[in-house]
Structure prediction request, 661 residues.
Amino acid sequence: MITELRDIKMNTPNINEAETLLSIQDLHVWYELRRFGFGHAGYVKAVDGVSFKLEEGETVAVVGESGCGKSSLMKTILGLNIPTSGDVVFDGENLSGLKGNGLRHYRFKVGYVQQDPYGALPPFMNVQKILEEPLIISGMKNKEERLARIHKAMSEVKLHPVEDFLQKFPHMLSGGQQQRIVIARAMLREPKLIVADEPVSMLDASVRVEILKLLRALQESHGLSVIYITHDLSTVKYFSRRIFVMYAGNLIEKAETRHLLENPLHPYTHALLAATSDPDARNAETFKEVPPGEPPSLVNPPTGCRFHPRCPHFMAGLCDVKFPPDFEPEPGHFVACWLYQ
Amino acid sequence: MNVMSQKLLKIEDLVLHFKTRSGTVQAVDGVDFELDSNRAVVILGESGCGKSSLAKAILRLLPRNVQKYSGEVYLQGTDVMQFDEEQFRQNVRWAEISLVPQAAMNSLNPVIKVGDQVAEPAMVHLGIKKDEALGLARRMFQHVGVPEDFLERYPFELSGGMRQRVALAMALVTSPSLIVLDEPTSALDLLTQANIMNVLKRIKQELGTSFILITHDIATSSELADEVAIMYAGQIVEVGHARDFFPAPLHPYAQMLMASVPRLRSNSDPMFITGQPPSLIDLPTGCRFKARCPFRFDKCDREPPMFGKNGRKVKCWLYE
Prediction:
């Protein structure tokens, strides 16, 4: 019943603005290519017309392969990229209007969990310095206050006892502990939104689940919104309420996790699910079905639907001509594919 | 001896210890296993359990700080540990066993055409002319699914998946009976991973090659595995057929490792293993998993031997 109500709320145009934390409208992030350093040579259309809304306390997963534009989307949300066109509205504030102090304050409200914890932690700083620095930058002058905040953040990520870790350098910690420090750092400023970029892909299987459960617990206890970026569909259902599937700069399917996994609509989503293995000895007896070819170049993406050269359901004269809009074959389940018009 | 010669590879009590400033790292500590021809064994373990060192020990690709390297490695019945370095290089490495190292796709020489790179081991190890070797390279490109005109390309012109296939073609070009793959798909995208696993399966069917697949990716490993070996803290703790192992692992570590795998097609809640694997410098006495094991009892303070059970082997006192 509750999910039904949510569905209705999501689909009515008069969404209560107070509940929408992040709203992205027709976002384009293009990088200019230059010839010989100055001549214009086209654009890399990394994000090309992405729109979605994220409610407060909601978790979504953005699933896609490397080069599909998910990192560009993430960096734009973090305020590290300037959108070519379109709007990113966070908590009622348009990101494009923010400069200097405004942008800095915005970044306090958005935490970032990097993919490679070892690369994300400066090797020459100990844990205390690593965690103190963002607090100093954000203007927390009192050292006691800073330490108290660090203690709180570290006990939230379950690094006990805190004192044992404060003086350690990143190389002295295991991968899981490093990732906890990264999460603690993202939580320091009490953000409203966490962007987690493949937070567990560099970790071992047994630690992976532990970190995902920790993120989940933090999300629930703080009412955080989380954007979880991943290529691993098998971890998504333990974590997110909705899934966005991204391909060549577009979100091609948006649905609640359960709907998407039980009833995938877009042919690309089908391919992703079919390629995901579960540990089973019978896998060795059959070949996997994989669509031919590779994701297109984002400089000159195919006309029409960008998946059409690889699609088993390609309809000549339609898919290669017109870009499919979002269709909604079942409530709350959006798919950009002509099969569902 | 007769039984032994039927096995493609038989390893007995293989030990590889490294000397470091802080002590001896017991990376491979008494590993036994066997492999028939045209079979694939998957060696599963977490980072730092010694699985890459095991690959190095089998191929005798040793760094300088080796403290102890001993044991027996029978290749088609011959103990190749008795070979000297030159004999080993001529008769074993590439000729019989080739290696696709970790991140092989990033280790191609950027200034040499990939065709020439694939042909090179054939020229060195088979002693054939370049034209002939390029012909072999072309055939291997067909096997791994790389278009033939890619022979003339440089590595930067290829995508990650294509470069991984080239690395595989390079390992295949001398037609070895065994290929050791160290994390062959870990840096690749989902669909590319599935493609590479398809290629490996096809090679196994068409060329009858055997594989040792070293990985931490349990779900993907099941795509190729005939047999599974679980490695923990320098030792193999369980070996068995894939069809027995995946539904019901025996060793507590293997059980917990399998329970930690998130699954797409079932709703089980994945668990995690508390604690950390022991340091390979300072190993506990007795069973090495006992500190994290929920079934621990007094016997665990003594080191368990490999117990056999219905054709499966497990290093745990529970199966005495």
About this structure: Chain A touches chain B through 41 residues (CB under 8 Å). Residues 1-18 of chain A have pLDDT under 50 and may be disordered.
